Each structure stands twice: as structure tokens, then as C-alpha cells.
Amino acid sequence: LDSPRFGERMASLWLHLSRYAEDQAHQVGKDTKHFYPNAYRYRQWVIDAFNKDLPYSEFIRLQLAGDLLPATSHEDLVATGFLGLGHKFYNRGRLDVKAEEWADQVDTVMRTFQGLTVACARCHDHKFDPITVEDYHAVAGIFASTELVNVAYDKPEAELTKEDKQAHRFTAHVVKDKAVEDLPVFIRGNVDQKGEVVPRGFLSWLNGGATVAFDTKESGRRELAEAIVSLENPLTYRVYANRLWSMFFGEGLVPTTSNFGSLGEPPSHPDLLDDLAHRLRSNGGFTKALVREMVLSATYRQASQVSDDHLNKDPSNRWLSRMRLRRMTVEMWRDSMLQVANTLQHRGGPSMELDDPSNTRRTVFARVSRLQLDPMLLSMDYPDANVHAADRSETTTPLQKLYAMNSPFAIEQAQKVIQNMHPHPSKIDQEDGLDALFRQVLSRNPDTEERALVREYLHGAPPATRWESLAQALMMSNEMLYVD
């Protein structure tokens, strides 16, 4: 919890919720005006916030309305990148295009912090949850009164040259209020068919059905943040506690982590979820305290081995009879290969392309592109950065193994592992080398059957590459990829 790596690991979850990326899924010619070359500042802010154990209420306030709070520091202004780094469309002056961007922000905010699919009420009242079309437009009006801007960050505004501004040097991508407007209801989602104007506000059903209008000359983002962090709000801490549980146990107590509504799955352990949310709220919203309780619990410390009794009584592990077998994310897998090869660099800063041969930094610091996602990320189920991604899908395909077999990155890390053992691989003692390699990659010695198989392989493989190929095979193994 004290390690800087904690914030990097937590950020790798949060950035998917905020649909973090550094460009758009479309590009006209060489036009990059809607790209975000300094998006990494928001990423670093998220990492620092988790490492500092920023209370969850402040974490929310700063991301939704940091520019409107009186005591916000210069460094915290970049937190509103949560709102500003979503996808942008061309012809942004058109009302229908603006409406798409507002819908994206409504969906991202409400699913992330409230676990509700409010955007489903854009065209009509929500079919399953008590969310009206007026509720949707009340929240959308907040974002209609907000705009994306680039502000001076490393240099005073007066010192920025025209070239600096065009290249987005020394700036951060944030949001600010613009001319305040309340939106009319766009009937059936059609911006050309306008109904009654709805004051900016929050969800009425969380206020007993009464309208929650924001009487403010600002956009309403500050009031929105306060409505979300209110101790009377029954969802905020439940949703966050469930996300933390999902991260450490492989599945949430509510499996649909961004949908606590009628179409989401009910909690498997409602009393436990309520208790976790109560603990989180009572301790001031400090993430690390709840994480500590989770990982020191007897439930977390269970093994993942499945017995016949488990299969009979709890085949899907709904009742937490064992630890769920968890596959590493692509970030964890790549970072683990770098760690095993002793090439991992703990350095942040501006993003680097993942396929850059010199990039041996943690994967969270790699550039994320909507336009052309890196093949390694793409093959290993990295989420779509165009939308809020509640959870990751897990697929198992031949392409994943083919990539690992032929990837220059994986081959190079395997070579580094062997070079660290001996500068001349042909001189490695077979038995000592075998034990050392297994301990380095899998943190254990080979068993009798593995030892016999590897001896046979080493006897017949080409001397120049046999150790490197063996190292690569171990790094591709399920034992390396899965956390049990």
C-alpha cells in the first residue's frame, strides 16, 4: 500500500472507467486538433491521488468540478480530464453532434459513480429503472454548460507561443464553464423536436421523486458532485466498494459493476456489500483502509484449487468457497515479463508507444490510441477506449499465443532473462540453470516430470537458442499468466 506501484495498479482500473485515450477514433487527413497529447497529466493525477489516498469524496469532486472549487491547487486542475478526454466529433458546432458528446459524459459519470445507465433515458423514460427523460436532460444540461479547454500548465499563459499552443506544449486538457443553458427535452432523442425546458439538476428518484434542480449561475458540476458524494446517496459508496471487491477478487459482489439497476445482477452478498460501503464511508472514504481489510481477510487468502465438494455445493463460486482463478491483465502480464527480465523501469511522464523497443516502462504509461490500438493490447482484451468500460472481457484465442510466440518484445525479454543468468548461454550448467530459470520466471523449482521434459528438450534443441526458447515458453505459460 505504501509502494508507488499501488497507484499505478489502481489507475489501470480507473482509466478504463474514464475512457482514457490520447486521440480519436477518426482522423481527417493530418488533422489532430481533437487529439490529447497531454492526456498523461490526467493519468499521473489519478496515480498520485491513489498513492496519496485521497478521500473518495474529494476524488469525485476534483474530477467533476475541480476548476470550480475555491482551494483547488494548480496540480489538481487536471483532474477534470475525467470529463474532457472523451471522444470528440467533427462538425462539433452542430446541435446533434453536441448532443452525442453530452450523452457520452452523462453515461460515463453516472455509470462510474452511481452504477446507473441514465443515458438509456435519453429518448424516453428508462424502461426498467425510475429514471425519466427529464432526469436525463437535467444532467445533460450540466455538460451542455461545460466546454473542453487547454490551459497553461508548465508555463504561464503569457509565455506560451503560438507554436506552443498549436502543438499543445505546456498545456493540460481540462474543462471549464461556458454560457449556462438549460436543455429542452429532445423528443425521442431528436434535437429538432424540442419539448419543455428542464432545469439542470440531479435524479429525481434519489430525492423521493421530487425534482432536484440546481439553482446556480454555474454549470452545475459542483452541485452534481455534491449530490453524488452526499451521505444520503445510497449508491456512491456501494458502487465503489463493489469495484474494489471486483478488482481484488475477480468479480464484484454485484457482477455488473456499472449497472446497479433492474437489468444489473443482484448482489450475491447484500449484507457484505452494505458493510463494506459503510466501512468505506465511515473511515472517511480512504481507499487503502478498505483494501487492507479485503486482502487480509480469510476470503482473500483462500487457494483457488477446486475440490469435489466445491463443485457440488458452489460450482460457480457464487458463495466464495475458494479464490477465483484470475488471469492477468495485459498490463500486468507485460510488466511481469519486464520484471522477470530485470528490465522494468519505474518512470512516468509523457506516454511512449508500446511497440517502441526502448519502452520498458510499466504498461500503464504507454500511449493508448482509439485510432489504432497497439496489437498487444488489442490481442489481450484491452477495453474499448471510446466508451466507459466497466469490466474486461476475457477471451482465449490462438492469436494470443501466436502473438506471444512471435512478438519481438517477448523474444527480447526471454533473451534478457538468459543473459542475466550467464553472458554465454552455451556455458549454463543444465541442472543449475534449470532450477534458476524456473525460480526466476515461476518462483519455484521444476517438479520431477517437468525436469525430465526439459532435459529431453535441451538435449535436442539448437544450442544457440535453446535456453532462450525455454525461457519464452515459461513466460507464455498459463502459470505465468494466471494468478492462483
Question: Any key phrases for this structure?
Answer:
484 residues, mainly alpha, 3 domains, two-stranded antiparallel ribbon, 20 helices, 8 strands
Give a summary of the structure in a few sentences.
This protein is mainly α and 484 residues long. Helix content is 43%, strand content 6%. A two-stranded antiparallel sheet has the order 1-2. Strands 3-4 form a two-stranded antiparallel sheet. A two-stranded antiparallel sheet has the order 5-6.
In percent, how much strand structure appears in the residues? Answer: 5-15%
Helical residue percent band: 40-55%
Structural class: mainly alpha
Rg (CA only): 25 Å
Helix run count: 20
Give the strand tally.
8
Q: What is the arithmetic mean of pLDDT? A: 92
- Biggest sheet, spatial arrangement of strands: 1-2
Task: Write structural notes for this entry.
The chain is globular. It folds into 3 domains: 55-233, no CATH class; 234-301, no CATH class; 330-483, no CATH class. With 484 residues, the chain is mainly α. The relative contact order is 0.10. Helix 1 crosses helix 2. The mean pLDDT is 92. The protein has helices at 4-17, 40-51, 56-65, 81-84, 95-114, 133-144, 162-166, 221-229, 236-249, 270-282, 287-295, 308-313, 330-340, 375-379, 398-406, 408-421, 430-442, 448-460, 466-476, 478-481; strands spanning 146-152, 171-177, 183-186, 194-198, 201-202, 212-213, 326-327, 482-483. It has a two-stranded antiparallel ribbon. It has a two-stranded antiparallel ribbon with strand order 3-4. A two-stranded antiparallel sheet has the order 5-6. It contains 20 helices and 8 strands.
